[in-house]
Amino acid sequence: MAAEEERALLGPAGRDDGDGGGRSPGPPPTLPAVCDPRRLPHRLLVLALMCFLGFGSYFCYDNPAALQTQVQRDMRMNTAQFMALYAWYSWPNVVLCFFGGFLIDRVFGIRLGTIIFSIFVCVGQVIFALGALLNTFWLMDMGRFIFGIGGESLAVAQNTYAVSWFKGKELNLVFGLQLSMARIGSTVNMNIMGWMYSRVQDLLGYTGPSTLGLTLMIGGVTCLFSLACALILAYLDKRAQKLLCKEQGKTGEVIKLTDVKDFSLSLWLIFVICVCYYVAVFPFIGLGKVFFIEKFKFSSQEASAINSIVYIISAPMSPVFGLLVDKVGKNIIWVLCAVITTLASHIMLAFTFWNPWIAMCLLGVAYSLLACALWPMVAFVVPEHQLGTAYGFMQSIQNLGLAIIAIAAGMILDTRGYLFLEVFFSACVCLSLIAVVMLYFVNHLTGGDLNWSAKKREKLQKVAANEKEI
Fold this sequence. Notes:
It is a single chain. A hairpin with a 6-residue loop joins strand 1 and strand 2 (about 25). The protein is an all-alpha fold. About 80% of the residues lie in helices and about 0% in strands. The protein has 22 helices and two strands. The protein has a two-stranded antiparallel ribbon. The chain has helices at about 1-10, 40-55, 55-60, 65, 70-75, 80-90, 95-110, 110-135, 135-165, 170-205, 210-220, 220-245, 265-280, 280-295, 300-305, 310-330, 330-350, 355-375, 375-380, 385-415, 420-445, 455-470, and strands at about 15, 25. Residues about 10-30 have low confidence and may be disordered.
């Protein structure tokens, strides 16, 4: 069968390459378009598999947030213990962010690496669900730890596949579609897991660890679906490699910890902005459902809906804002707008009883904008050979911050309540705001290019390219 496909793709007899024995692609292929790796229908199939590759991971990541009330009640845990479920996900990624790309490039390869990381996600979710079924909290923590080992590295593998199959102008769109699918996974989780728990409760006739564990086990089916996508994608990639003589995808990351000593002040300020911003978003979403129930008297379903609005907005807006920032430039200004909007959202939620949909929609827009403007700035302030180290370090300290703040947020909520917690999150965003202002002045005083317009950057890049040719 494989030989027939190869003959179909290369042509009936192939063409001599001029040296007597080699073959090069001949007449137009006779394979159906959906089976031909060079044609759009096949590449769209591959794109769909890439997008669904991370669906299960993102769906199950926020299972605790979608079931906060049920998890705390059925497992008899306080908020600090509940937030430890998020901390245990982040701990392995403090280290793995440096080595995920290395494992894909040098140890497993993209195909085997993706399958292995998908298996870690599946096994982690199963252990997490078993911990609930057996009413064993430490087993749930272990499941989240194993889940975390696979989750972040799977995202690296997903990006590697994208670069391998879609280069040039298509790549930004592909990255945007992958991010959108991830946010759809999170949104579906937020809105369906509570309903699923109710159906399992109706089936069993009672609440408790068994109901929770079975619900989480059913949710884990999405991880099996993503593992199936990984297996199919591996087969199609291997087939394309054989038919087109293409190389297996690599991350291109070069991790050298000694590069850290050469990081500029601008890069360290970007790290501070990243950590202080995201610790005020993800832990808040993790605790948001009960917040909306207690303060605004929302029903469980309404609370799940509003808590997911950040992800709902992010799904369509991330590609749009990415295109906007690409066309306009001025990255620091966009980051400043996002941080100020986020601060306003937290202040509204903390000190007013205005309709919380307003604040959460603003938060969703700001979250989407910041991601599109902040992460590309790293490439502007470090040489290309240090990009792998810079992004690895950025993700590492982000996960360290999320792990620590998740536990701290749980402790604050247990002892002080939601008002103090919102003040704490607002303080984190204020630190991020201070770092953005400092970055603006440091960039201005050092003649940096972080706040250039897109036209100015493109013009200077052309001048530099012409000088290099001369």
